């Protein structure tokens, strides 16, 4: 009897929100309380609130298998340094949930604004500065990223299946090679 209870617990463990890697799109939709904001062949997106901020919750599929998901911030800040504050707050929350990060980096690709902290948000938007923190669970790689290019900032959390990540990469690579 004890063995069956352990198996049941293993089956109910979730990788992201109420989902587990490998679920099909219909199964994933059944875990959400509302209709998708966007539904495409290989993607579902929902509008959600996390830590009092508006995010797009995205699920990625290949061959109708969930292999990745995440949150992309929808809010915009006039002061680009506010994204750094949001990043640090979310990093603290994720560290409480997943423990000490496996990787935590602040990468300067161009030192132009490095000595002026008031312009670090601008540096991010120009692609000069990148923030990345990563955690791992037994099934998932979780990446918190704050990156930018061409005056735009992308801030979000990505969850990738350890088991399906390479599989998805190979499928995408085959598609690319076929199209050349």
Structure description:
With 180 residues, the protein is α+β, with helices and mostly antiparallel strands. The protein has one domain. The protein contains five helices and eight strands. A hairpin with a 2-residue loop joins strand 3 (53-62) and strand 4. It is globular and about 50 Å long. The N and C termini lie far apart (56 Å).
Fraction of residues in helices? 25-40%
Poorly predicted segments: 1-11
Strand content: 35-45%
Radius of gyration: 18 Å
Order of neighbouring strands in the sheet with most strands = 1-2-3-4-8-7-6-5
- One letter per element, helices H and strands E, the order comes to HHEEEEHEHEEEH
The coarse overall form would be globular
- Tally of individual domains: 1
Structural class: alpha+beta
Cα distance spanning the termini: 56 Å
What is the number of E strands?
8
Q: Mean of the pLDDT scores?
A: 92
Count of individual helical segments: 5
How is the main sheet built? 8 strands, antiparallel
Set out the fold topology.
Elements: H1 2-12, H2 25-31, E1 38-40, E2 43-50, E3 53-62, E4 65-73, H3 81-98, E5 103-108, H4 120-125, E6 129-136, E7 140-149, E8 152-161, H5 162-179
Antiparallel strand pairs: 1-2, 2-3, 3-4, 4-8, 5-6, 6-7, 7-8
Task: List its traits.
globular, 180 residues, alpha+beta, eight-stranded antiparallel β-sheet, 36% strand
Short précis:
The protein has 180 residues and is of the alpha+beta class.
């Amino acid at each position: 009897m004890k063995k069956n209870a352990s198996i049941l617990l293993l089956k109910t463990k979730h990788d992201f929100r109420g989902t587990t890697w490998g679920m099909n799109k219909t199964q994933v939709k059944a875990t959400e309380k509302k209709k998708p904001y966007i539904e495409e062949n290989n993607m579902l997106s929902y509008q959600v609130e996390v830590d009092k901020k508006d995010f797009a919750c995205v699920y990625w599929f290949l061959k109708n298998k969930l292999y990745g998901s995440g949150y992309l911030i929808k809010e915009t800040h006039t002061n680009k340094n506010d994204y750094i504050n949001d990043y640090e707050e979310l990093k603290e929350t994720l560290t409480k949930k997943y423990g000490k990060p496996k990787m935590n980096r602040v990468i300067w690709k161009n030192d132009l604004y490095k000595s002026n902290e008031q312009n670090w948000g601008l540096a991010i938007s120009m692609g000069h500065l990148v923030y990345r923190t990563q955690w791992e669970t037994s099934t998932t790689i979780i990446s918190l990223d704050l990156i930018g290019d061409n005056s735009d900032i992308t801030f979000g959390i990505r969850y990738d299946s350890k088991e399906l990540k390479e599989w998805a990469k190979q499928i995408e690579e085959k598609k690319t090679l076929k199209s050349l």
